[in-house]
Amino acid sequence: MSTAEIQPAAATFDVPELVVGFDLDMTLIDSRPGIQAVWDLLAAETGVPIDTDLVVSRLGPPLTWEMANWFPPEQVDAMVSRYREHYPSHAITGSLPLPGVLESLAAVRALRGRTMVVSAKYTPSVVLHLEHLGLDVDEPVGDLHGAEKGIALREHQATIYVGDHTADIDGARAAGAVAVSVATGPFTADELRAYGADVVLNDLTEFPAWLDAYVLEQRLEALMRRLSGYKNMVVAFSGGADSAFLLAAAARAIGPANVIAATAVSPSLPVAELEPAARFADGIGVRHVTPHTHEMDREGYQANAGDRCYFCKAELVETLQPIADEFGITAIATGTNADDAIAGFRPGIRAAFERGAITPLKDARLTKAQIREASRSWGLETSDKPAAACLSSRIAYGIRITPNLLARVDRAEQTVRSLLTPYGVENVRVRDVGQTASIEIDARLLDQVDHQRLVDAVVAEGFPAAQVDPRGFRSGSMNERLKDPEKYR
Known about the structure:
Blueprint: H1 3-6, E1 19-22, E2 29-30, H2 32-46, H3 52-56, H4 63-67, H5 73-90, E3 96-97, H6 101-110, E4 114-118, H7 123-133, E5 139-141, H8 149-155, E6 160-163, H9 166-175, E7 178-182, H10 189-195, E8 199-201, H11 207-228, E9 233-236, H12 241-254, E10 259-262, H13 271-283, E11 287-289, H14 299-303, H15 308-326, E12 332-333, H16 338-341, H17 347-354, H18 360-363, H19 368-377, H20 403-420, E13 428-432, E14 437-441, H21 451-460, E15 466-468, H22 477-483
Parallel strand pairs: 1-4, 1-6, 4-5, 6-7, 7-8, 9-10, 9-12, 10-11, 14-15
Antiparallel strand pairs: 2-3, 13-14
Helix pairs in contact: 2-5, 6-11, 8-9, 11-12, 15-17, 20-21
Region (Disordered): 470-489
GO molecular function, one term: sulfurtransferase activity
Pfam family, one: HAD
């Protein structure tokens, strides 16, 4: 029976996409100067004495509510229209972003989330404010107040809503979202807390750290729930940060005796990776097996076209399936994470999926940064381990892969790394691009090291020529050549 036939239904483990809603006035922006200017204009035009200081001290409710405090009912609609006529010219440029706004929006983006603004303000005015301040928000929504905000929040499946008003808490509650309050508006932190906010922050500068911790906790809980749904598991364990974390999580969730770490041995595995992988598995009490894979026997792999990784991953999963069957294990898991899933050209992910492998880290929406953070909190030695893709990823597409080419790359990389160890090197790649080798090292080291010394060392390992890439290390740089081959000839 294949793993595809027995894995739990994916819907059981769906992790909602991160969608964060924000109020606008006094949450993202201080709109008081601009709003006060418009009210001052209305007062001058109509001759009605309006306490504009009072008006801007209680922002939040719909404009019609405030207008009714100063004009008779039959004039309210006309005054609202007049206010909105003045607003674009007098209110937009006077408004300023509150501290922490850009960082908060960026924090959502870093977690692969989406953002929206849900405000009682007139929708065109919301858009004008966002555009003027260059605030990158996916969905601006206006003309909703209090619990009505829950309509838009539910429609866009927001899981968090951030505001400064008690009415914003009502909106979050109506949507079943986490109510995060910032004490930058008319209510104090104690008042917001007493009203029922789930989280109260002094201002948005505190939001990114809270969001990172909250989302990581939610995603780790989702991961452990998913892993606990299996009796046993084979983890495709390369020794890298992702698969090491998955292995540790599986051991925690279902017990180390029910987990097997499988490290595929082939010419594409750097020699230096095998011993640390065995040590890591032994350290968490997991059985470690080292099956030999034969991707070199697959023409599609040797040909090294853009879909090379498809054949490699197909070989891996097909090699691990008999091991799973032998031990009565019902799942083969890979360390694919949420960043991998959106990284564009990844034929290996498709090959594993077609063969029934599961991707618990991706399904829990865990990013590479989150995996490293969680690994640190668990005390895993792999938390800061540099990315180490297979050696074949160093061979330019179109160059036929042979064991000799892979061994040459491996030797060259080990030599360069040893030369750079005193500098605290993290990432080293020696790319075989045909008649020469391209040496990629951490960008921060480019001005600190003797380039000629690195070139000589790589040539000594059998390359006809070499050069140091002035752009430094970039994960997936070979895909740049695939997209624009003429540029790299």
